[in-house]
């Protein structure tokens, strides 16, 4: 006795004819195939109606591959022909912790990424003066340019671009940029 189930070939064919009574004529190539090979997930149910016209790439006058919405923020700064090297940099997550966090654990903070409030970006700029540094901060992109170096850094987390702080240490030849992270759902992280 055969159990009724969806795995049966006859059951799938019956379901297909029930949902799609106007079955199209099969091609000559399909006639030579096994009946189970002809039946697939796309053959069950009515065929989709293609009411929306398809616009081909040749129909557009533009040679653009992507629309402006699909391009990541800061990609306008990427210049492949620019010979300046990328300086060494380091991205560090920062937390504001006190004794109640470290010793007593009262605030509920832990060392995970979810408890971090700021990003610290340390950029080594040897043989560079402060006057030569151009810094531009966007929500998800950091752009640093000097006559010798160029850094376009996509940030790992959105930041508040207007609330940052930058310091240049001449003795270390290093630029430190501290950026507050944009955390709209911060109330979930607090206990």
UniProtKB/TrEMBL annotation:
- Domain called PIH1D1/2/3 CS-like: residue spans: 86-181
What is a single cellular component term in the Gene Ontology annotation?
A: cytoplasm
Enumerate the GO terms in the molecular function aspect: dynein intermediate chain binding; protein-folding chaperone binding
The UniProt entry's GO biological process terms, in alphabetical order, are: axonemal dynein complex assembly; flagellated sperm motility
Q: Which InterPro entries match?
A: DNAAF6 (IPR026697), HSP20-like_chaperone (IPR008978), PIH1D1/2/3_CS-like (IPR041442)
- Cite a single Pfam family from the UniProt record: PIH1_CS
- Region called Disordered, residue ranges: 19-56
Q: Name the protein family.
A: Belongs to the PIH1 family.
What name does UniProt use for this protein?
A: PIH1D1/2/3 CS-like domain-containing protein
């Amino acid at each position: 006795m055969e159990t009724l189930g969806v795995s049966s070939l006859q059951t799938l064919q019956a379901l297909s004819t029930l949902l799609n009574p106007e079955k199209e004529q099969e091609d000559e190539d399909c006639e030579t195939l096994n009946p189970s090979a002809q039946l697939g997930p796309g053959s069950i149910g009515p065929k989709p109606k293609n009411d929306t016209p398809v616009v081909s790439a040749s129909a557009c006058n533009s040679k653009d591959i992507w629309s402006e919405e699909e391009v990541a923020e800061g990609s306008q700064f990427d210049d492949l022909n620019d010979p300046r090297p990328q300086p060494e940099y380091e991205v560090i997550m920062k937390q504001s912790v006190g004794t109640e966090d470290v010793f007593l654990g009262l605030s509920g903070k832990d060392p995970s990424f979810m408890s971090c409030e700021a990003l610290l970006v340390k950029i080594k700029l040897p043989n560079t003066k402060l006057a030569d540094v151009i810094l531009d901060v966007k929500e998800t992109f950091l752009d640093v340019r000097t006559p010798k170096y160029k850094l376009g850094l996509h940030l790992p987390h959105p930041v508040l671009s207007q609330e940052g702080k930058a310091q240049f240490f001449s003795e270390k030849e290093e630029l430190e940029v501290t950026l507050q992270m944009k955390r709209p759902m911060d109330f979930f992280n607090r206990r």
